[in-house]
Amino acid sequence: MSVVSAPASVRNKTPSELDFEATPKTVKPSQDIISLQAKQAELSSLVINQQKISNLPVKEPPIFSGDYFEYPAFVTAFDSIICSNVPSNKDRLYFLEKYTTGKANQVVKGFLAMNSERAYERARNMLDHRFGNPVHVAEAYKTSLRRWPKIDDGDSRSLQNFSDFLVRCEEAMKAMQSMGDLDSTENLRLVSSKLPSYAAVKWCRHAHETQTKYKKIVKFGALVNFVREEAELANDPVSSPDSLKAERKKTGTQPKWGWRNKSKKNDDSSWSSNSFATSSTPPVSSPKQQADQSDQTCPLCIGRHALVKCGKFLKKPVDERSEFIRTKVVAHSLAAGSTNVITNCRIIQVILFHKNNPEKTAKVYALLDDASDTTFVTTQVQHKLGINGVQTSLDLSTMFGRQRIAVKRIDGLVVERLDKRTEVELPKTYARQTIPSRRDQILRPETVTSWPHLKRIEGKIPPYDDDVAIGLLIACNCPRAIKPVEVIRGKGEEPYAVQTLLGWSIVGPVAASDTSKDGHALDSTCHRVMTREVISGPSDSANQLSFVFHGKTKEVINSLALNQMFELDFVEDKTRSKQSLSQEDRKFIEIAEKGIKHLKDGHYELPLPLKNATIELPNNKTAALRRLSQLKRRFEDQGGQKYSADYMEFLKKLIKNGYAEKVPKMSQSENTPRVQIKEKRNVWYIPHHGVYHPKKPNKIRVVFDCAAEFEKAMFHQVKVDEEYRDLLRFLWWENGDLTKSPREYRMTVHLFGANSSPGCANFTLKSTANDFENEFGASAADFLRNDFYVDDGLKSVPLVDDAVKLIVNVKKMCSRGGFRLHKFVSNGKEVIRRIPEQDRADGVKELDLDLDSLPLERALGVHWCVESDCFQFTIVLPDKPCTRRGILSTVSSIFDTLGFVAPLLLDGKSILQELCRHEIGWDDPVPDNVKAKWEKWRADLLKIQRISIPRCYKPNSFGRVMNAQLHHFSDASVKGYSHSSYLRLVDETQTVHCSFVMATSRVAPLKPVTIPRLELTAAVCSVRISQQLRQELELTIDQEYFWTDSRVVLGYIANESRRFHVFVANRVQEIQENTCIDQWKYIESKQNPADEAPCGLKTQELLNSRWLSTPAFLWKNEAQWQTISEEDHQLQESDPEVKRTVAMATTTSAQGTLIPSEKPSLVERVEYFSDWYRARRAVALCQSYVRILRDLVLKNHKKQCIHEKKTSTRRQ
């Protein structure tokens, strides 16, 4: 029902008043009638307007899903349409829930159950905070601007869309301060790169003229105005270049439209994007086909004629006809079930090879089919790669039924992208004669140009190669190869593009055609294949293999463990600083000390440190034989000749060098399990296999199952007690003869990478140092004891003669223990000259030390430029997906134990922590705003290769050190906290030199922590690093200072009377136990180098910061250092970390009675609680207790009344 309101002049009058209103005497009757008619006309007009409004569609605000772009418009529409007409907040909340969806709806739903007027206000405030934050909106604009595709020449529609978006950005920039960086040179260059080539050139000239001629700075607003003018010109219906081109085409020769010319019958391309094929001779068709064509319906005007005969269609410009064909005709043909449609499926050109012979490759078209569960390759490709395969049978299930076929199984195939950026190892693959497919379904570059939404991948499609066969079908049992990385969706029936690790493919109808090159236009293909491998033989039931899924492992990362890693400094662990040995460590040392023997040949012998020496092991020889038979089959494969030869040679050397031996022969009665148990002689057989290092394809490593992946020859120098060698048995063919039965061998040395091997080798190395220290000196012994990590040693000495002497003594000491120390490298060429060539590292053996530069070496994970004697970074970022798992892998791959680039890595850790905070899945795609931050940080990470840090703490020209000081700086922010340490040296001429020593940076924990607590945690890190540096630095430290810009922390440390809460108390105690208050100094934030890290730095900022160059004031005399007195950082009594003391006071009167002290108020009682919920629970308990007491008093009162009543009744 519509309501019409009368004009103000009529609104308060009755109908009688309207009809019979008194007329003044001065007004004529005719004027009265005219006035009355005007009022009636006005009223009728209002009624008509109201009826028109009621006939319009109902006004509704748009539905908001959580898009930052749409929130301002949604709020405006909601306030105008809903809030202005709905007075109740409860009803407004209902409408707010109705017109939101997705993330926004989840926010609103949480307030529906409150049923209060304030619920709507809180919901709106939450939406404003989540989606109306100016920073979020600004970042969304910037991200969209960065991802905007480049506009092609002649694409006027895209240019107009880009102009409209830039206008939106400009308006947002005026309202939001965070958008100001759009005026930067980098952003202007980015935006101009999106323009068509002709417009970009014009803009460059315009910008250059503005800067040089008018002396003005080019800003974002000028670029927006320029793009808007270009878009208006490009879309002008009269004077735009596109309209002129269309007019020229109209006036030119009109082609006769029809089917393709016979000469182009064998052309692989489909309909062109700019013109249609012409022909004067129509194709030969049967009478029935001609009749069918005469009955066609025109898709444009719905007339009974073909589209090529439609006058309305022929009057259209060429561009509009082309667009109509692409978007309407192809989709209409597909929907009608027409066979005259070329459809593309996921066929990609790749490179195929076998992992044992990567040099021999074959280009093939691979069909990615997620409807099949088995991967196939054609026999033609198999023979081209020279692979034999293993004969087997398959139970093949298709739409036509089930049959058993003979095939060959191939293991170890690898498929690689054409640009060789990514390779994927295929599961077991089966060879067949052909793979059902159609060549017209192969993607061609010209297909992409026909569809506007696919143009951005035009340069990523390789050209069609008629000589390459469709020779591979990759099924869903290889998800890594077929899993979509990105999808470009089309509209309606348009084709869509899918990107996988192997490249791009297009799925769907792409063009209309009556035939294809290979004559399969009317063929229909359906790939749905299920297989089961069987063993050929006479009996089906006896030879069928039970199907077992191939078990692959993926690291399961515990989110809780990752969060704990970020919060190690916030765990109340009182035993952190106490280093103690576990029970297993003590037991290992006890076994090693008792069982170690120094043999006559110089080697040491240690027993196996078994956890349980009385364990009885089962007989696993059958399992070892089964594994050996699998190894034999691999040797006999056609592609296994090299693998077999390398394997044989390795085992031959192993046995020849005495690292393994034949098991001594025993009588049959002695070799029974019963006798072994009686004599407590355990036997265990260890399976083995071979692997190749990716960087050393010609060097095999024979790996035992209890071993690590790579050989550590150091372990071979430590022998195993003969009593334990039967636990290290393995099976092998004598002299490598596979025709003979395998013999039993056993290892005489410790195995590669067994859990006990590193400990045994390290214990032996230290025993060597202890046993021969008197003979070769303390320097060599200290080198072995303190400067070795497994089998790598690192030492720095001041003089060449000292270095040579140390090398000679250490080599002799190691040889007495059965070890050979070699692969030496030094930054001093004179030292290298005096080292025998066979003992030099591989990179310096062939160098001409007079002409060549020393190479880049890797020392304990850090790259060391030997020539310049500097530490450097070599970054090779793996191609990881942008997921939480991929980000963790990339961040963890940067090895920076000394903290050179800690401020840069803190940003990467912050991104990872943000994903943890939002509980993003390990393999889920990350949000767009986080992805933009990650890609920016990842690109900046490559620039750290410019960083070079001198290895030596003092320059060569520096004099004798007279004073050495360690300075530790700490700081914290909401984002994280950091520490950095510097060494300050002073020589006899009072020359000062400062150098970076070590630093750390860590993100703040997920649970909110106050800034003073973070600052205190950073100070504790300084103390712990100080203890570590004093142990590791071979320097006498004269003074040590700790600097912080937090007066609160200094107040905590200087406190001696007040008590703190547990968190602060534990850390203050650790600081006071290891440092003195006089060592702690105050520094302003602008001078604090540790202030650089908590906010994060980019690479260029890091190079120009105080982080690596040390603070400027340390280079000055100590008298010029600015310090403050202790009174300036006194602890405040109101500090929340200070425990409040409560004194209970009572007084007595003259008669000796107690007079209670004044009772605290309710407010003071509530202040005792640090948490609101605890206070509320305490008040509730008090109220409940009062209620119980009141009920008890009433109950007693009733009993007393009843008793008195009964007593009075008895008296009466």
TrEMBL record:
<dbReference type="InterPro" id="IPR043502">
    <property type="entry name" value="DNA/RNA_pol_sf"/>
</dbReference>
<protein>
    <recommendedName>
        <fullName>Peptidase aspartic putative domain-containing protein</fullName>
    </recommendedName>
</protein>
<dbReference type="Pfam" id="PF03564">
    <property type="entry name" value="DUF1759"/>
</dbReference>
<feature type="region of interest" description="Disordered">
    <location>
        <begin position="1"/>
        <end position="23"/>
    </location>
</feature>
<dbReference type="Pfam" id="PF05380">
    <property type="entry name" value="Peptidase_A17"/>
</dbReference>
<feature type="region of interest" description="Disordered">
    <location>
        <begin position="235"/>
        <end position="293"/>
    </location>
</feature>
<dbReference type="InterPro" id="IPR005312">
    <property type="entry name" value="DUF1759"/>
</dbReference>
<feature type="compositionally biased region" description="Polar residues">
    <location>
        <begin position="276"/>
        <end position="293"/>
    </location>
</feature>
<dbReference type="InterPro" id="IPR008042">
    <property type="entry name" value="Retrotrans_Pao"/>
</dbReference>
